[in-house]
Structure formats: structure tokens, C-alpha cells
Design brief:
The complex is a heterodimer of chains A (about 775) and B (about 100). Chain A is mainly α and about 775 residues long. Among the domains of chain A are: about 325-490 and about 505-510 and about 525-565 and about 620-650, no CATH class; about 680-745 and about 760-780, no CATH class. In chain A, about 65% of the residues lie in helices and about 0% in strands. Chain A has 27 helices and two strands. In chain A, strand 1 and strand 2 (about 100-105) form a beta hairpin. Chain A is globular, with a radius of gyration of 31 Å. Chain B has a single domain, classed as Helix Hairpins (Orthogonal Bundle), CATH 1.10.287. Chain B has helices at about 1-25, 25-50, 55-85. Classes of the chains: A mainly alpha (about 775), B mainly alpha (about 100). The interface of A and B includes residues 95, 759 and 767 of A.
């Protein structure tokens, strides 16, 4: 099948520009900076950190330029026109008929995520200048942080799955290095390993999915688009072409989704995320807001056509993504209630918010989910950096809300204000940014027929408001306790609940490894390098929602206009792009009468041309729904506030200590404290059931088969050797041996000087012998 | 013409590697020199694979990379143990095997 240019009017070529064409520089800059920091970082006046900050700032400028030119490009296109991505690709390597490309794919989605990643990374690096000052591996920290961002940026603008995989794995590696930054403490390196292995479990799915898609799609994409089966555009078009075998694409989608589960901390592989708090706080902030965990969501958003077709999104009342997302929202929000560690509350909140994104993607709410990536990055980064600010300046590097915080609103006004703004955004209170994204997700999930999951989303919103109120209360209100009351730093190792003993590491960024930083006597506000990023982020947490403010009508929905790919059928001249040459897509509108109705993409096979994106629905905004969810959020906050006050400050006998008095509640509490026993399940059941039978089987094999063979062989050998001794050994061998010994002795004496014991001399002899042999070979052959 | 340049590069790398093995006293640097030699061989293989248009050379090179990784693993392990026992990794100090 070959695609012909449509007869309908060919539209004017889309605008492009230097930033769009050269967006591939965005990840290259941090990669170079990484190499420089490793090589010369320690000799620089600021120990290499200036290179990290500078490279992220350059990336930020480049991605801002890219975003600006992308907006120009979209604005220049007509309303129904498919705005083709700016693709450039080069051959990376060729082998056995496979061509592995490397290149950029810039469209609305990548522009948004590029900007967010570069922005948050820059702020986090600035913050780290102060937070990690005096750390023993300061240079390596910045190197890893820079490479981490570089990996994410490379993944975001990848034009094919191989480069995508590369960025994905770089992030996996860097997260391991950063989580285990203070590896001297056993618990930290355990957390790093746990993160690495859990994510690796999911990564298997990514490899399987990519290979399956390649072998299924390659023929079609080569024939119709002249693209490889790794290319993201090719796979998207193939998925929507009606060509794929439904079971193949379903299995591929499930395999890819398993990778997302691992990376984005979805149930049941979410257990690594809270443990990842063992890393320094800036790492947690970066990892949880914009880089690592968003990668899984980004994978689903990037290859959305595959999931759309493979999992029959919009076609049924439930699918794998929605179910996993829904479960994740509720279970992780429930876990957030029993945490004493402020960073762990935020970690579970991240897991829960990622559940919302998955829920949205699974239910066909692509744009709200992507928008939630955007807004969530700002407020979650702000919350984490706020937590870091508290531990840095007020609570002696402790993160324990119950023991070392409380009443901090007076001493840390800036941290407090930014925290409140971000919390309101996280809870989705109008007009903070979370409202415009989270509410849209819940709304669209219901609109697309997933009514059960809309209720799950609302329950999640209630729980979010409640646990954030609890955390805010414990941290900023009530009486100062422990370190924040000015008491000397105490040993927080031993004071932990025995149930959570094995992960108590995350309760503090250990004092001992942080030795160069002397503890402050009294709580105070943090310095400018910490508060300025906080303020910038909180302003964005407040305002970024207005980029897609659905309540105010069509003209406010800028994100929808700029980011969502338009589901028009595209007619393009099949033309393979040479190295470094961008493909010029000639896009056409189907026909005049169709132009304002829904496109066939996603629901039927396009007759001529290809689709790159499925047609999605958008729920119309209703104030009644918004007010309902607002009421739910306020109810959650109010109930939690009253309970927190009664339990933590007044010690009201009616509610305090309920879990120890009522058995059922106590059971539920310890069920939550033990994280649903999932960690126990993985370690005791999964690992043992795999590892133990193998060792037992090996032992049996060793004892019975190998030993049996050995014993039999030994008996035969004894008989044989008797005969050999009499005949061969005594007569033949001994004579030979005696003679050869004489010979050897004389040769040995002659050759003794060469055995100098010096390796270089041996090397020289070896190479000269080889050279002579080579010379002989050449002479003989010619 | 095209292959020549690769062969020339490989020869230069090989010579640098040989020089390193012979002249260096530091065991780690010797290991690195051995890596250079191995990789110069890889370049040769790949250059000829490219000229002949076959994938055999690529496969061979991948095997060599794997073997080289194993070799470095063993080699660095040795160096580490030597260092623990002798507090030095200079190969000149290790002449117990003198005949």
C-alpha cells in the first residue's frame, strides 16, 4: 500500500526555527557537562557544581526557545491540521540489515516535558548548592544529577524506541547512584539496590514490548512511511492503521505498561519509591516531580496509540491501566496516613498522583494527564524542597514530623507559605494549579464512561486533602517538639517503631555522613539559595494551572491547543529522510464536510493516509461537578484537621490511642504500617521461592549425579592405574623422565636470566616474539 | 582508502598499547593498555567487516568486548588483592617469581 498525496488542498508548510531544528542539543549539553565534571570538576573553584548548574540553565534556555517556536508553529497551522512533529534522525549504527537511528522527535508532549524537566532540574541544582555544601562527594553528586537530567531529556525527545530505552536506563543507573549517595549507611545502599532491582523488573517489559513492536510494525512502517519499526511516529501510525493483529498489540501494550508500573511506582511495584527517600532531598525532589517517575507515565503518553488500540481504551468500562491507576491512588493515599516521616508522606502522595495520571491516560483523558505531569512537577518539587528546607535549617536533618517538627510556621514563614500554596495545589483547590489538572482527570474519566473510577478519583481527592492536612498540622502547627524546639540532636536511629525498623534510614539525612555541616542551634529560615527556588516553584504551583483553565472557556485552553496532537488523517508523500534531514510532512484536511466532525482516527481504519493520534473526547466543564469535588476536598481537610488537633495536641481521650484500644483498628493500622506486607511478600515469598529451590536442586545434583559419576570413575581408575604402574610407569616413563630432567635442567640454567620476575620484560619478550612471528608470516606469504 | 584509515588508527592504538604494557609500572595502567590493544583489534575486525559487508566481524567484536570486560574484572581483582598484600601496585615490586 502506498499513500498518495491527497487531492484536497495542500496546506502551507509549517513554521519551524533554529530551536526546533536543534532541540537535540538539549540533552547533549548536560551529557557534556557530566563528562567535564567527572574529568575536571574537582579542580574547579566550585567543585564542578557550576558546570552542572550552567548546563541545566543552557538546557532550560534551549527548551524554552523550543517551546516558543513550537507554539509559533501550532499557531501558524489551521484549526484541524495535524501539526507534524519536528523530526530529525541520523543513523547510529547498522548491523545485519538493522538500522538503529538516533534523533529528535519534537511535538507538544515532548516540548512540555522538556521544559518542565529542564526547569525543575535547574532549580534543584541551585538548591543543592546550599543543601549539599561540604558533602564529601559533592562533585560526584552534581555529575550524577546532571547526567540524570540528561537521561530524562534524551528520553523525552527520542524519536525512536532505542534512544528512548537508552535515556530510560541512564535514569535507572543515575537514580541508583543518587539514592545510594550516602552509601556508607547500609540502609541507604539497600534502598538504592531495591530501587534499581524493582525498576529492572519492570524494564524487562520495556525490552519485550520494544522488540515485539519492532517485529510487528517494521514491514508496515518501511513500506508506508519509510521509517524503521523503532520509530515512534511509525509505531503510532501503525497502531492506528487497522493493520496490527489485536493480540500482538495487546501483549505489547501490556509489556510496555509493566515497564511503566516499575518506573512510575504503580501498584504492585510501588515499594521502591518511598525507600528512595534515602537519597538527599534534592534528589527526592527531582526524582519525584519531573524525571524518574514521570518516565513511566511519559511512556504511556508517548506511545498512546499502541495503548489506545491494544487495551481498547474508550471501548470498555475498564482496562489494565485504569485498574492499576485506581488501585494505586487509593492504597498509596492510605499509606500516607501512617507515616511519621514527612518525605515519606510526600512519596506516597507522589505515588498516588502518578496513579491519577495513569488513571487519566487509561480512561482516554490524555491531555488532563499530561497537564497533570506539568502542574504536579511544580508543586511536588516545591513540597519536597520545602521538606528539605525544614530539615536543613530547623530540625537537625531529621524528617520525623512527630518527634522533631511542629510549630514551625513562625520561624520559617517563607517555607510555610510556599508549603501551603503547594499543598493547596496538590489537594486541587480552586484556583491553584492542581485543580485544573486533577479535576479535569476525574471529570473526563467519568465522561468517558468509567464511572467506578471517577468515584475512586474522588475518594483519592478526599484522602489527599486529609493526609496533607495531617502532615501540615504536624509540621507547622501545634507545639514545637524535639529538634525544632531547640533540643540537642538526639539519636533518631533507635527511636523507631520496631515494625518499620528496617527502613528507618529515611527518617533523617544522617548526621554522621553529613559531618561537614555543623548543626544549628535553633530553628531558623533557610538561606536564599533554598528559599528562592521555593518561591519560584510556589508561584508556578499557583499559576501554572491557568495554561489550561477549562472553567473560563475555550480561549483559556492553551495546553489543549498546543500540546494535544490533532487526530486528523494525514496524507504524506512517502519519502525516507536522509541523515540529518527533517521529514517534511504535507498535511491535508480530510475533506470539507468532515473538517468539523470527529476524525475517524482511533475508531476506524483510515482509508487513505495515516493517523498519528486517536480522536479523544473532552468533557465539558460544569461548575456543579467542580463545586462537588471542592466540597469533598474541604471535608477531607476539615475532618483531618479536627482529628489531628484532637489526637496530636489535645490528646483527647476519645480519639487518642484508638488504635491500641480497638483491636480491629489496631490491625488495620499495623497492616498499613507494614505497607500491606508487600515488602515481606517480595522478600520472603518471591525471592525465596525462586532462589531456594534452585540451590536445593543444585545440591541434589551435586550429591547424587556428580558424586556418583566421580565414585564410579575412581574405581575404574584404580584398576587401570595398577596395570599402568607396572608396565608403563616403571619401564617407559621413568627412563624418559630421568633423561628429560637432565635436559630440562640444562635448558633451565640457560634460560634463567629471562625469568626476571618483571612483568614489563615478559611483555617485551612476548611482543617481540609476536613481531618476529608476524614478520616471518609476511615473508613466507609473499 | 577508507579501510586504510581504520587500519592506520588501529595500528597506532596497538602501538600505544604495547608501549603502555612494556613501559608502565602501574598495574592498572597496564590493564588499560591491554584494553587499548584489544580495542585496536576490534577496530580492525570492524573495518574488514565493513569492507566485506558481513556481520561476522561485528559479532566477533562484541565477543571481544565481553571477554575484555571479564578480563578487566579479573585483572582489577588481582590488582586489588595485590594492593592489600603489598600496599603497592607497581609491577616492578612484584618480582617473587624471579628464577
Amino acid at each position: 500500500m502506498r499513500i498518495f498525496a491527497a487531492e484536497s488542498e495542500i496546506l502551507a508548510p509549517l513554521a519551524t526555527g533554529w530551536f526546533l531544528e536543534n532541540a537535540w542539543l538539549i540533552p547533549v549539553v548536560p551529557a557534556i557537562a557530566f563528562a567535564l565534571i567527572i574529568l575536571i570538576g574537582k579542580r574547579l573553584p566550585m567543585k564542578g557544581s557550576e558546570l552542572g548548574v550552567l548546563s541545566m540553565a543552557i538546557s532550560l534556555v534551549l527548551s524554552a526557545g523550543t517551546a516558543y517556536q513550537w507554539v509559533q508553529r501550532v499557531n501558524g497551522a489551521s484549526e484541524e491540521q495535524f501539526v507534524s512533529p519536528v523530526v530529525r534522525s541520523w543513523s547510529w549504527w547498522q548491523s545485519g540489515g538493522f538500522d538503529f537511528g538516533i534523533g529528535q522527535h519534537i511535538d507538544g508532549l515532548s516540548v512540555v516535558v522538556l521544559f518542565v524537566v529542564a526547569f525543575i532540574s535547574t532549580l534543584v541544582q541551585v538548591y543543592s548548592l546550599e543543601y549539599l555544601r561540604g558533602d564529601r562527594r559533592y562533585t560526584h553528586f552534581f555529575a550524577a544529577l546532571t547526567l540524570f537530567s540528561g537521561g530524562m531529556l534524551a528520553m523525552v525527545l527520542a524519536d525512536n524506541m532505542i534512544l528512548f530505552l537508552l535515556g530510560w536506563e541512564i535514569m535507572g543507573l543515575c537514580s541508583f547512584m543518587l539514592i545510594g549517595h550516602w552509601w556508607e549507611e547500609d540502609a541507604n545502599s539497600r534502598a538504592a539496590l531495591k530501587a534499581f532491582f524493582t525498576v529492572r523488573t519492570g524494564d524487562m517489559g520495556l525490552l519485550v514490548g520494544i522488540s515485539m513492536l519492532y517485529f510487528a510494525a517494521n514491514d508496515w512502517t518501511q513500506a508506508n512511511l519509510g521509517l524503521s519499526g523503532f520509530s515512534i511516529r511509525g509505531i503510532s501510525a501503525w497502531a492506528l492503521s487497522g493493520e496490527p493483529n489485536s493480540s500482538v498489540i495487546t501483549i505489547a501494550a501490556v509489556a510496555l505498561f509493566i515497564a511503566s508500573i516499575g518506573k512510575s511506582g504503580q501498584f504492585p511495584l510501588h515499594t521502591w519509591l518511598p525507600d528512595a527517600m534515602a537519597g538527599p532531598t534534592p534528589v527526592s525532589s527531582l526524582l519525584h516531580s519531573s524525571t524518574m517517575v514521570v518516565a513511566g507515565v511519559f511512556l504511556v503518553a508517548r506511545l498512546y496509540p499502541v495503548f489506545f488500540v491494544g487495551l481498547d481504551i474508550l471501548g470498555s468500562g475498564g482496562n489494565l491501566i485504569v485498574i492499576i491507576g485506581g488501585i494505586t491512588i487509593v492504597i498509596s493515599a492510605a499509606l500516607a496516613f501512617v507515616q511519621n516521616d514527612i518525605k515519606r508522606v510526600l512519596a506516597y502522595s507522589t505515588v498516588s498522583q502518578l496513579g491519577y495520571m495513569m488513571l487519566g491516560l487509561g480512561a482516554g483523558a490524555w491531555l488532563p494527564a499530561v497537564f497533570h505531569i506539568f502542574t504536579h512537577a511544580f508543586f511536588k518539587a516545591c513540597l519536597f524542597l520545602g521538606a528539605g528546607s525544614i530539615s536543613h535549617s530547623a530540625s537537625h536533618h531529621s524528617f520525623d514530623m512527630k518527634k522533631d517538627m511542629g510549630g514551625l510556621r513562625k520561624v520559617m514563614p517563607i517555607t510555610f507559605a510556599t508549603w501551603i500554596v503547594s499543598t493547596l495545589a496538590l489537594c486541587g483547590v480552586f484556583p491553584f494549579s492542581g485543580f485544573f489538572s486533577k479535576d479535569e482527570i476525574i471529570d473526563n474519566v467519568g465522561y468517558n464512561g468509567y464511572n467506578t473510577f471517577m468515584v475512586v478519583g474522588l475518594i483519592g481527592a478526599f484522602m489527599t486533602a486529609a493526609y496533607m492536612t495531617r502532615a501540615t498540622y504536624l509540621t507547622f502547627f501545634g507545639e514545637p517538639r524535639g529538634a525544632s524546639a531547640g533540643h540537642a540532636a538526639h539519636d533518631s536511629h533507635s527511636a523507631h517503631d520496631s515494625n518499620t525498623a528496617h527502613d528507618s534510614h529515611s527518617a533523617h539525612d544522617s548526621h554522621d555522613t553529613h559531618s561537614a555541616h555543623d548543626p544549628h542551634a535553633t530553628p531558623h529560615e533557610s538561606g536564599l539559595l533554598i528559599t528562592v527556588p521555593l518561591m519560584i516553584l510556589s508561584v508556578l504551583a499557583l499559576s501554572s494551572g491557568f495554561l489550561n483553565a477549562t472553567p473560563f472557556g475555550e480561549s483559556w485552553e492553551r495546553m489543549k491547543l498546543w500540546v494535544e496532537p490533532r487526530a486528523s488523517v494525514v496524507f504524506e508523500e512517502s519519502k525516507s529522510g536522509g541523515p540529518g534531514e527533517s521529514l517534511n510532512l504535507v498535511a491535508g484536511v480530510v475533506s470539507a464536510e468532515d473538517s468539523h466532525s470527529k476524525s475517524v482516527c482511533g475508531s476506524a481504519t483510515p482509508e487513505e493516509g495515516v493517523c498519528y493520534a486517536p480522536q479523544l473526547n473532552h468533557a465539558p466543564f460544569k461548575w456543579s461537578k467542580a463545586i462537588m469535588s471542592m466540597l469533598i476536598v474541604f471535608a477531607g481537610g476539615a475532618i483531618s484537621w479536627i482529628l489531628s488537633m484532637l489526637v496530636f495536641t489535645k490528646r483527647d481521650p476519645r480519639v487518642a490511642g484508638l488504635t491500641s484500644r480497638i483491636r480491629l483498628l489496631g490491625l488495620g493500622h499495623s497492616f498499613l504500617v507494614n505497607k500491606y506486607y508487600l515488602d515481606h511478600f517480595y522478600e520472603k515469598v518471591v525471592v525465596r521461592s525462586v532462589a531456594y529451590p534452585i540451590s536445593r536442586a543444585a545440591y541434589w545434583f551435586n550429591q547424587n549425579i556428580l558424586d556418583g559419576v566421580l565414585h564410579g570413575a575412581a574405581r575404574v581408575t584404580t584398576k587401570l592405574s595398577d596395570w599402568v604402574y607396572k608396565n608403563v610407569d616403571q619401564r617407559v616413563v621413568d627412563n624418559t623422565v630421568n633423561n628429560s630432567a637432565v635436559l630440562t635442567k640444562s635448558v633451565g640454567t640457560a634460560a634463567q636470566p629471562t625469568q626476571s620476575g618483571r612483568v614489563s620484560q615478559y611483555g617485551a619478550l612476548l611482543f617481540s616474539a609476536t613481531a618476529i612471528a608476524a614478520l616471518v608470516l609476511v615473508i613466507v606469504n609473499t | 582508502m577508507f579501510v586504510n584509515q581504520f587500519l592506520f588508527l588501529a595500528a597506532v592504538l596497538f602501538c600505544i598499547g604495547v608501549y603502555g604494557v612494556i613501559a608502565r609500572k602501574n598495574a592498572v595502567l597496564m590493564l588499560m593498555s591491554i584494553e587499548l590493544i584489544l580495542n585496536s583489534v576490534n577496530i580492525n575486525l570492524l573495518a574488514f567487516a565493513m569492507r566485506n559487508g558481513s556481520t561476522d566481524g561485528h559479532t566477533f567484536a562484541l565477543y571481544i568486548i565481553a571477554v575484555a570486560a571479564a578480563e578487566v574484572g579479573v585483572g582489577l581483582g588481582l590488582v586489588l588483592l595485590v594492593y592489600r598484600n603489598k600496599k603497592t601496585i607497581s609491577v616492578d615490586e612484584l618480582s617473587e617469581m624471579r628464577g
